[in-house]
Amino acid sequence: MADILTLIATLLTIAFGLFGFVAPRYTASALDLAPTDSTMGLSEMRASVGGLFVVAGIAALWLDQPLGYAMIGFAFVGAALGRVLSLIFDRPPVAKVLVFGGIEAALAAVLLGFNL
Length: 116
Fold this sequence. Notes:
Elements: H1 2-22, H2 24-30, H3 40-63, H4 66-89, H5 94-113
Helix pairs in contact: 1-2, 1-3, 2-3, 3-4, 4-5
């Protein structure tokens, strides 16, 4: 069961990353990020929200080692902690933060819980 949940969490990591990688405008809109006169934001979406997670997920599958999966889990811990800090300091829409943060926390729990 642990292997199946790890695989699902890794595939979800890749799938979510693909949104930022191939559809940065859609991803920015879903995250309530406003467009500017620069296209640098789209570059950032493709890099940090997209490519980073796509390649990390593919690499974990390729390496097929517990620490590879755990490292993705640690990345999701960082993302979830960023959401908590944002709730404290930035006052974003709570519902969206809870949904996105909840997904990140759940993926972190699976990837760390079964691979450390």
